[in-house]
Amino acid sequence: MPSNPRIDLDSTDHAIIGNLQQDGRMSVAQLARAINLSPSATADRLRRLTDAGVITGYSITVDPEALGYNVTAFVRLAYLTGNYKPFHDLVDSLPEIIEAHHVTGADCFIIAVLARSMRDLERITGRLATLGGITTSVVYSSPVPSRHITPA
């Protein structure tokens, strides 16, 4: 949830966001050509979108298997205490946890985990189970691994 108030985005802002989601390495000059704006005006728009918290950073996408992570799983954790420090400490100590979402319902957290093997997943889930009841779902495949966000 953004901490800054929502700004009105126009079609040029939408074009900037769309182009950068397709290629985050695009230079300002390339982006300016793609959206038919001058480089200086494009840079000003980028700065405004960043300052407003619309653009929060730039990153690369990597193939987990290429890095040795052959198992992806989602772990639901029923965490029964309101003291979240032990949870945050454990998450900070396990780099294999790539996402954690505090959710409503019977479970408190849904956690995305990458593991090198099923034995490695067992080690990770064993550590998570020290905090509460867990349910683990191993991913067979990801037909929609990630989508770009379009402005609402």
TrEMBL record:
Q: What's an example of a GO molecular-function annotation for this chain?
A: sequence-specific DNA binding
Family matches, as CDD domains: HTH_ARSR
**UniProt GO BP:** response to amino acid
Q: Which is one Pfam family of this protein?
A: HTH_24
Where, by residue number, does the polypeptide cross the bilayer? none
Start and end of every HTH asnC-type domain? 9-70
Write down the InterPro entries for this protein, in alphabetical order.
ArsR-like_HTH, AsnC-type_HTH_dom, Dimeric_a/b-barrel, Tscrpt_reg_AsnC-like, Tscrpt_reg_AsnC/Lrp_C, Tscrpt_reg_HTH_AsnC-type_CS, WH-like_DNA-bd_sf, WH_DNA-bd_sf
Entry keyword set? DNA-binding, Transcription, Transcription regulation
Query: What SUPFAM superfamilies does the record tag this protein with?
Result: Dimeric alpha+beta barrel (SSF54909), Winged helix' DNA-binding domain (SSF46785)
One GO cellular component, as annotated: cytosol
SMART domains (alphabetical): HTH_ASNC
Task: Indicate what this protein is called per its UniProt record.
Answer: ArsR family transcriptional regulator
